[in-house]
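Hey, resending since the last one bounced:
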Amino acid sequence: MFRSTKALAISNARHLSTSAILRQEAVGTVGTVPVKRPVGGFRGGILGFFFGFSFASALSIYYLQQDNKIASGLLLASVEELQQGTGKISSHLDRLQTVEKELAALKSSGAIKDDVTKVRGEMKKVYDGLHLELLDLRAHVWGVEQDLQKVVKTGESVDLT
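The structure tokens again:
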């Protein structure tokens, strides 16, 4: 437990020495010796940070590109559906335009209600005129029958004019 004086002299001499080897040697220290970090350790931390950052950035860019591809595909499908719908609507509009043209042609060539009532009135006049002529003809035929019966009964000749 007691140190010899020679050992004390050597330990004191070591503390007082200025050589590089003796300075690094720690004699009689209590606890752990602090270890000097090399300068590259700081660089390694920065390099690790940049490596992790670049890896995370690359991974996020990859996922963003995948999402972009999916969204582009969905958008393209929507555009194609819209084109098909637009084609159907334009074909329906073409059919409607042809129907409207045919309807306009029928309206221009068809009779209007006023025309129909006008023609109906004219037909009534013609029918009434024919009815009157028929009545006149019957009256004339009746007169001829009367004259004929007179002739048959009397045997005389009758002037037909």
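Residues 112-155 form one domain.

Sorry for the duplicate.
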